[in-house]
Design a protein that fits this description.
alpha+beta; four-stranded antiparallel sheet; rod-shaped
């Protein structure tokens, strides 16, 4: 039962005061409740005020003339005076405070939570199209299940954890990170299209190409053997896979084989071959026919024979 100080009561009211969110979380964590006193009504806290007076008289007043040179000695002296206070018989009561506690109150106590209370911060954010929300305080991104893309979620974060809620139900929890511009991701939160980007690597594309065609696998392997960063070549592989889906296997493999032969591994080169139907022209090339035998036909042996040059002029000339 606190007073109506701003750090405890956001808005004072005789009937429904607004409790500070941090104090309310603290009370919920330890299984208690907050009931502020009425404004300018000290009688609401008469028992507490009287107990403060008694402790002041029975503890502080008896120790005020003593000197202590370390904290443990002071705490030990305070403990002795508090114990004596609790074992003193109360006026108009046949028991002391310690007896009352042991008989009726101790058995009703619950164990403290295993985790200590952590101060919480609250915010409401919209899930971005890439499955993430960003805590602006840290400028760090956290994944949210893809079915909540475009929807409002409530984010509660402490010093160590980040909790994400949608309509009162927790949908994600992450360990808090303080890396600016970083991403904390749970793979299951992402849709299949976004998971594809997490899996990307040269070996991923090579294995995927091998499932489609041996020629395509060879083509992709040669693509990543170029002296370029793999990230620059992922789009080329995606383009080849797109052509594979749209083109007959026979023509596509011939185009890839021509790219391998000419050492040109670009997507645009393969696309031009298919658009210009170069693979179809090669397929329809005429069959070579042998020339008929004839006495006037001369083979390569004829031209290898050296014929001496004869001049029509006389040597005397």
């Amino acid at each position: 039962m606190p007073d109506n100080l701003k750090s405890a009561v956001t808005k004072a009211s005789r009937y429904e005061p607004d409790i500070n969110r941090a104090l309310e979380d603290f009370a919920n964590h330890y299984g208690t409740t907050v009931v502020p006193a009425r404004v300018a009504a000290p009688k609401d806290k008469a028992l507490v005020e009287n107990q403060v007076k008694l402790i002041y008289n029975r503890v502080y007043a008896k120790l005020r003339d003593m000197e202590f040179f370390d904290l443990p000695t002071l705490n030990e002296a305070i403990g002795e005076k508090v114990k004596a206070h609790n074992q003193t018989r109360m006026q108009l009561k046949p028991y002391c405070r310690e007896e009352r506690f042991l008989a009726e109150e101790k058995k009703m106590l619950a164990p403290l939570p295993e985790q200590p209370y952590e101060l919480k911060s609250y915010t409401e954010l919209t899930v971005n199209k890439n499955n993430y929300i960003m805590i602006y305080e840290d400028k760090h991104y956290y994944s949210v299940p893809y079915r909540f893309i475009g929807q409002k979620v409530k984010v509660i974060y402490t010093r160590n954890m980040v909790y994400i809620y949608h309509k009162g139900k927790q949908v994600a929890a992450h360990i808090r990170s303080y890396v600016p511009g970083g991403y904390t991701t749970v793979r299951e939160h992402l849709c299949s299209f976004h998971q594809h980007y997490l899996d990307r690597s040269p070996q991923y594309y090579i294995d995927r190409a091998g499932e489609k065609s041996p020629v395509l696998r060879q083509m992709v392997t040669l693509i990543f053997q170029q002296d370029r960063y793999p990230e620059q070549l992922y789009k080329t592989c995606d383009g080849l896979f797109s052509l594979f889906r749209k083109t007959e296997l026979q023509h596509f493999e011939k185009a890839c084989q021509m790219g391998i032969d000419y050492q040109n591994y670009s997507y645009r080169f393969i696309l031009n071959l298919l658009q210009n139907r170069v693979t179809e022209d090669q397929q329809a090339s005429p069959i070579e026919k042998k020339l008929p035998k004839h006495e006037n036909l001369r083979g390569k042996q004829y031209y290898q024979t050296q014929i001496p040059f004869k001049s029509n002029t006389n040597e005397s000339d």
